[in-house]
Amino acid sequence: MDTPIYDFVKEYLEKGTVRLHMPGHKGSPLLGCEALDITEIKGADDLYHAQGIIRQSENNATRLFGTKRTFYATGGSSQCIGAMVYLAMLRGKKGQPILAARNAHKAFLHTCALLDLEVVWIYPEEEASLCSCPILTQQLESILKSMEVLPFALYITSPDYLGGMADIKGLSEVCRKYGIPLLVDNAHGAYLRFLPESLHPMDLGADMCCDSAHKTLPVLTGGAYLHIGRDALPFEKDGKNALALFGSTSPSYLTLQSLDLCNEVLAEGYREKMHGVCEKVKQLAVQLREKGYFLQNYEPLKIVLEGAKMGITGYDLAKFLRESGIEPEFADADHLVMMFSTENGEVDFKRIENALPPMIAKSTEGERTTLPFRGEQVMSIREAMFARRCTVKVEQALGRICATPAVSCPPAIPIAISGERITEEMIRLFFLYGIEEIDVVVEL
């Protein structure tokens, strides 16, 4: 598969051209990558008006993912989340809310504030952690039946931070029945397209989704995709304008080159490599269970240890790894998350197995990072996020109105939604995630 963006930059470098254009480093090495870092010079195309090499490369990605259209982004899934919600909103009617699972990334909240959207939140029917919000198809059907005004879209996160995967096929069928598009934050699942049997949202019925290419594929940080489904409304028409609305006019050409080169990687034996690493993850999971570890149901490239079921915190489990020179993706009071890719070799898996000692499982009272009770929304998200605010200690925030969502990243899932009144349950979670201060609305 051709790599038009990388080839252009490489040829430009070889010419030894005097650079009287941005960036200011002029190709001089400081980090070592500057020579390949350019801007929108003649022939380099323009990400948001792509007609040349970027359009050619995006067409390659479109074929690889089997979509109606796949767009590049250099602002991560955060940029793509804003774009796809905006695209769905354009085709909705005034006054329609958006229906969303409660474990949404804070980028979704920022989007709702900027677009002044009302959100109807879906909470799980059973107890779930802050990071998870499993939605059953019958639950969705019941919610939609009960709504006086249908939403302009359903927004979900799948896979979630703990590896939970939604029944996208079932949810998409319900959405289609009610004539609303399904939007999926698939930030952790770009690789799902390249499993022996694809589990990618676009192959399961989603109308739009975003992938953080950099999270699971060999792409530089910030590289992402916005995918438009084959049977979707004509969202692709305004796709570039939507991405431009939420992105910088100076996209990273280093990141664009990595997206471009990734196409070549994906086209040449990547499915076989993916199958191999998935088998290694399965084997490691078996070995850890034999050592007494409780594992949560996980997506193919994640292992999630449930510390709460073993009488140990995820933070302590992470210490075992760090003492052996291994850095996990995420840890909280209940969980430890390890993410893998095709770039993890046999040595990595062996080091993980050796780093985690045998466990003696204990029964506990249950998870501690459960979602707080439904908050009382006393202001809109936009009103709260743009209101006058002050910063207070978390222990002084009871009864105050959340201004900006206070949450660590990862997992970047708000404990309190902007505009919600802060409860004791929320304060408990703030402390569990190490959050000591929060911005609240100054009530006049």
Briefly, what is this?
With 444 residues, this protein is α/β, with parallel strands linked by helices. The chain has helices at residues 4-15, 53-65, 76-90, 106-115, 137-146, 168-178, 201-204, 213-216, 239-245, 253-267, 270-290, 314-322, 346-355, 381-385, 424-432, and strands spanning 69-73, 98-101, 119-122, 154-157, 182-185, 208-211, 224-228, 302-306, 330-331, 335-339, 389-393, 437-441.
Give a structural overview:
With 444 residues, the chain is of the alpha/beta class. The protein folds into three domains: 264 residues, 3-Layer(aba) Sandwich (Aspartate Aminotransferase, domain 2); 86 residues, Aspartate Aminotransferase, domain 1; 61 residues, Alpha-Beta Complex (Molybdopterin biosynthesis moea protein, domain 2). The termini are far apart. It is built from 15 helices and twelve strands. It is globular. The mean pLDDT is 94. A hairpin with a 3-residue loop joins strand 9 and strand 10. Helix 2 packs across helix 10. A seven-stranded mixed β-sheet has the order 1-7-6-5-4-2-3. A three-stranded antiparallel β-sheet has the order 8-10-9. The protein has a two-stranded antiparallel ribbon with strand order 11-12. GO terms for molecular function: arginine decarboxylase activity. Belongs to the Orn/Lys/Arg decarboxylase class-I family. Its cofactor is pyridoxal 5'-phosphate. Keywords: Decarboxylase, Lyase, Pyridoxal phosphate. Its EC number is 4.1.1.19.
